[in-house]
Amino acid sequence: NASALTIVSTLHETSYDSKEMGLCPGGERFCEQPLANVEERLFNIEDSAFQAQWGVHSMELQPINPELFDDIYANSAGFVGEQTTNSNGEAVFSVASVSTYIIIAEYIWTDPTGASWTLYKGRYVTPSKFRDTNRDREKDTASVVMAIAKDSKSKSGVNSIEVGSRNTQVLTDSPIGPTGAFISTLGTGNVFIAAVIILGILAIIILLAPRKAKGKIRGRKRG
To answer: Structural domain of residue 141, as residue ranges?
Structure first.
């Protein structure tokens, strides 16, 4: 039954408040909370209009560049529907058939300085995610979870927001700053390159450092 096909998206934020900046209720150091009233849009990436606009993509072989999420969100190519998350952070979409979809959430966040940021988080829904939930031997429901992390400790990684640094860093799939300018994300490749450079510098410092003479100085005790 095509009308029974649904996609359930759950959006939440995880906060690590090691600096006690009030990210979590009750002064807790860690919390996980659903994100309510966040708009999400669903697109069929196998749709011919979507592929004509953005190219042919797949989650495994040719994922969509996250920097395009904001443009895709604002475009109608391949658009299926829009929902707003409820108090549990859930949004439920109805789809006509099993296909490959992408859900893009538009999350507006105000940083500690009062500046407003718009973040775009995307999650794929592949055919393998659809399950038979009513035991009629037909796939009817797919479920996906999206998370945005906030951390008051210096921490580099995709899909996280560093709170409390001198210049708040927004590291998500596709962040847009207050002026609309795109902010470069820090991915795992850049982290690896930075780590290699740091280790190389440390190795040079160790090699150039003066070494102490090995062994003990032996002598006779004079009585």
So the answer is: 2-195
pLDDT of residue 93: 96
Q: Where are the beta strands (DSSP E) in the chain?
A: 6-16, 30-34, 39-44, 79-84, 90-94, 101-110, 116-125, 130-131, 141-151, 160-162, 169-171, 174-176
Please choose, from the candidates 119, 143, 111, the residue with its C-alpha nearest in 3D space to the C-alpha of residue 129. 143
Give dist(CA 160, CA 171) in Å, integer. 5
Structure confidence at residue 193 as a pLDDT band (50, 70, 90): very low
For the entire predicted model, the pTM comes to: 0.71
Give the mean pLDDT of 157-161.
56
From residue 67, give the alpha-carbon distance in Å to each of 17, 74, 118, 141: 28, 13, 13, 29
Question: Do the domain assignments include residue 130?
Answer: yes
Number of domains in the chain: 1
CATH of the domain at 22: 2.60.40.10
